[in-house]
């Protein structure tokens, strides 16, 4: 059994989970919050118990020292010693056009993550900090980068180019990249397994509906369309992000005296379900308000579902056939009513939900369409951490070991 550490490092927080491979069992996970402040917190949960520690956390190195302390706690720790970890997988946001798969991290990979910082100015530096801190904590242990963008590198130019002067692509790399790739890849593979089908002859549309939301069309295991674009702002109406807009609105607002900073806030933090409902970015709160007759909340739900239906229709039009429609993410997995709202009226393109099955299925992996539905509707809980652990395991066992053998 190999124990792998999965790290998802943000600018002020860090999530981690330990997996036992190859049996893919989670041994426990933790969250470090308020990195960069004198009042840092770590919470770790495993079957050994819960650990909660408060310590000043000036930087990510200090956070990693605390992670090591929690992981190896004599009472409630997940590990006896930190050297039980034989590989680390890092969620890494932007691989640009450099990576279409996960990779073992070396100097070139670190340079590429730095090079792509322009494209993900908040995330890539935080991811790099996590990588460096983990390398210091576990010298000599292979580290793997799993990019959010990598899965969508199979998009054709017809899907990734914007209708802009070409030099914006050649000079500034402005194109659709897409995000949530690790989730779409995971749920689509699991859905194909659930249907007992072969990837090679299966096409799916995967809806990842969480606070961030995106839809991806996957033909024979490869991403061919995805709704997030140059940034995660494009596409669906999300928790606080606007999704698709007429770009002229932004110019209009600039002319009206709003600053670029104001507009950025409106479209990223104050838009979406929150902006439309005026209630919350949390779908549960919006349902509650809508049930009490709040018209803005009712419209927010309708806009959310309408946009998703539009994308499903558009993506179906560009696929020869669609075998499955997948729901995942906090809303896709749990919100029975929203799944129903979305599928209502998709019957004309062969997506026929069984409303009783949808209700009975709840949040489990399962099929919620009618037996006669040409497209199988599937609920599939996502697990990006497990996909990262799986990639890490496969890379260090196949490629890393053969590389070591070659060097010897
Ligand atoms: P993130 O993108 O932050 O990872 P999640 O995938 O956790 O987000 O999804 C968060 C969303 O899922 C919120 O809008 C939340 O209201 C919604 N959600 C979670 N559980 C339920 C539920 N039981 N019913 C409806 N919505 C839910």
From TrEMBL:
Protein name per UniProt: Acetate kinase
Using the UniProt record, give the first listed, main subcellular location: cytoplasm
Show the active-site residues. 148 (proton donor/acceptor)
Which gene name does the record give?
Answer: ackA
- Which family is it part of? Belongs to the acetokinase family.
Which amino acids does the record list as binding substrate? 91
Q: Which cofactor does it need?
A: Mg(2+); Mn(2+)
Catalysed reaction equations from the record: acetate + ATP = acetyl phosphate + ADP
Q: Which Gene3D superfamilies match?
A: 3.30.420.40
InterPro entries hit by this protein: Ac/propionate_kinase, Aliphatic_acid_kin_short-chain, Aliphatic_acid_kinase_CS, ATPase_NBD
Keyword Cell wall biogenesis/degradation tagged: no
Location(s), subcellular: Cytoplasm
**KW Manganese (keyword) present:** no
Give one GO molecular function term: magnesium ion binding
| Gene Ontology terms: cellular component | cytoplasm
Enzyme Commission (EC) number: 2.7.2.1
Question: Per its UniProt record, what SUPFAM superfamilies does this chain match?
Answer: Actin-like ATPase domain (SSF53067)
Details of cofactor binding = Mg(2+). Can also accept Mn(2+).
According to its UniProt record, in which pathway does this protein act? Metabolic intermediate biosynthesis; acetyl-CoA biosynthesis; acetyl-CoA from acetate: step 1/2
Binding of Mg(2+), residues: 8, 384
Domain of life here? Bacteria
Q: Which GO terms describe its biological process?
A: acetate metabolic process; acetyl-CoA biosynthetic process
Q: What are the site positions for Transition state stabilizer?
A: 180, 241
